[in-house]
């Protein structure tokens, strides 16, 4: 993963503009506004604990002067809180204390000067390969003298030459109560941002929703799982593993290709188990003991007696359970003999129309097949081949062996795969590729026998079991299906072979999500996982809240959830939040309302009913932490114990 | 946990007994069976079945009995070929030998199994004996597969009555009888006497008045491996808002296809010259090495017991002070609460509900705790794109028992499912649903795609079960990015609006190739997994000490895909395909000139391309001990091409390459 350095420039003179924020600010602790992103990003770094993810923090309009230009009076009031350090939980607590509203003279150390210090601080190792970000957080309310200076001009060049990303988080930019000076500064900031190649402005009022609903995406470095030829008409002898050196094999038609992962399910941040006792926290580990059971019944007078005899791990032989009666010790020779000696290769077996290859056969996660870097003819050939598949609506069937047989590890794998042609959109261009997925072998079929829902065309032994035709109900169900049409808002017709999503072309971790929300249904359905974002934002929230307290004490609050976790919004999924993007959009709720009548009539056929009363009570207990906020301003928590909103939020 | 365990069927323990009636006609050689007789067809099909079952259902028990067959063991002519026990290599060998001995004329089946004296009083005894065999066994589900081509199982009323009673005994014991009536050569099989003795049971309800023709014996036997594998059960909620979760279907999800792997490796230990399975147990310790003991309390879950003993789940934060964010079960539950609110605004349906009589029995459907699936809407099947697959789709159908094992279920689940299925088929729609299929799984978006439509499971010669495929759709996090080299290489991209980006002539040539090897359908049954079958074959030979010929080891004889590649290789050697491929090569060779231009425009790339070493260069360098003179990127590229382990340092890399080449040389000499 790329090394990264992020420099936060924080304006300590920032204040909220407008009445609402002011009153909140007065009631809360002494905090400068607009730091949501700062805390979110710092906490994520602390959770990931990467050794090459550095931060610097520069406070401007500070009462402390601490920077390498401090000899120069111009740079007074600029406090470099830290420079290129890996943040820790402990240091973040200290930074929090240092980032308090300033008591300094407002004219000291303006933001532009602090930016210059930030850029200068990046210079010493500018030649090293780093992703560099400057995050500027300000309301732009104080006097800035350094716009339009030659020094700033020079710094723009440095930012652009070194691919430094600049994010500006503006506090209440464009607010109706802004002073003239603020308005002027805002205009100047925008001009400056435009001069940066990678400059981006985000309004602080949007940032908390961006972090909550469209959290930044991580890039996982693509690891190639196969590099070699895709052959058609090649000699089958090459499928066999041989010890000799490998060169390129002749095949009448062949492309050089690479295989990369295309889809892998993302999981929650891993939690470990800790033993907490008397404020001492220790990681737990599980120790495995091996034993065999020996029947001592014959020696015993008390009937059946099975004794567990512990054994030494070294004496264990690896074995295979062929059947319940046949155990086999897999000694080296047998282990080696029992692996099919296959050689890494990819061979075309044929082609099939896309409608004739059931998705029921897709038994693995998808991979991309892309043309290898190399001669143009390879690229041209591969692209034309993919286009021929698209024009004939075909999928290519492949025999795929990713790696040579490995006798020492005892691994070999042959797969039959389908390669679906696609166009991968990169900005306003695309490249051809194949989305490859494994198809089942004979042993993978786990078909069962199921009731028929419709009259069956032809029977071998069984009579059809289906329900009476009920035309009224059928019509109702059809209405129901049609009224819940997700594509009812007509969008432009899409090229069905085009893959277009922002994750595809991510070259680095997103600092702040790039929010371009198109209204077509495909985009509305391809979003950040609501469960992952909820989990992450709750963890971040807990850590942020703990910063001003003792972590252990904070966590052991018996009313932790109601005191610290409950928000005005529901913690349950519902139709308005489950596919929520940055902007709230009630399209699913509206769709549901449209289907009210047929749904209502269908409920006459079906009744929900309690099957077994009282069963699973134990399980329900932990499932029952429901916090709902309702339109009537009521929050319910826990099914059995509904709490009043006033109790929770007062 | 209890509920989930209901649906876990890791250990499918089926006991099947094959009972076959022997008579003269079962030994008649038939044209449709390539001159073989029906008994041979049955035994060889069972042989095939066992080969599959040892891999996918190794805990199945199989017994084979012949009746009306001369036997020294008893007076009622029941001959045991194999008792009802778990599969084993010896049992498989015995049955396989019966088949091969017959083929190779060492011992013909009619010579081994002589037709006994037909006595109608024997059949009740035979069936009673078979019940005994089932009773002695430990199998969860029990099945009798009964082959006969004799439509006169009894003559006297006495025998009829006792058969009727015994068949009832089978039903009482939950032993399923699957009769397979074989066609006779001369006339049709008259099923009426069987209908009579089966009359008080449901075994023949689904039976049509036709018999199995000999060619279909194999198919009927192979289908015995079809066992429903339940993955999950939950409610599919179709309504929201005012109607809360009142409209829904209790559903079950089953496995259709999933990847079979060689996972039966075990730890073994030699004890008294015998191999024994090694078992494990584990203890939890803290860093100081102290064991943490958990209390035993049936009323508490494992998580609660751990929590009581001071064990909490947590995340370590980067901190010198070692700060752990540790949370209790309730706090985690809050973070991972995936319940769905079907009525967030707490609205009530204001219209009068005329049949609201049994309020007390209707559950509150406002909140659906996991597992559940919630309908979001429908889309036309043309909108479905399968580019990002995440897992094998599960098969969904209505729950016959209307969600019996959940806290609440929906009545008429199968009927509602049938309506939904019918409408989706007619309107060509698939549903988009959100939810978790297990209590602890992360929620996903899914496409609920009806079977027997194009792209789902439509196939020309086979109808899939009726229902839906549950196809997991990706979140943005699940999608992987392209390699940077592809994203940044601007010279090798096409503008989005250019639909005909590639040379027409070339595309048309490839299209000819595509048409030349078009498959009508893909049938997984035609392709046994080469690696798994080879493994089992070698182990079976080893267990039974059967000699192994060199030919048996050739990939050619073990890989079901090999003949396909071989056939394509042959077709390319001659005729039109050869010409097409030559045209393509010629056409593409024209582009060689372009590479000079490309390299000129992209000096970094040029250097990289020029750098790569030929095999000869490396060999020369290796022989003269001058590998060090090559650059790391050159060596790495060679190592990658030969799949040699890389190293972090140049010295290690060179060492690895040397070791690799030395080994090759040694092997060759």
From TrEMBL, chain A:
Recorded superkingdom: Eukaryota
Keywords carried by this UniProt record: ATP-binding, Helicase, Hydrolase, Nucleotide-binding
Hydrolase in keyword set: yes
Protein known as: ATP-dependent DNA helicase II subunit 2
Species the sequence originates in: [Candida] jaroonii
Record lineage: Eukaryota, Fungi, Dikarya, Ascomycota, Saccharomycotina
From TrEMBL, chain B:
Keywords linked to the UniProt accession: ATP-binding, Helicase, Hydrolase, Nucleotide-binding
Superkingdom to which the source organism belongs: Eukaryota
Name the record gives this protein: ATP-dependent DNA helicase II subunit 1
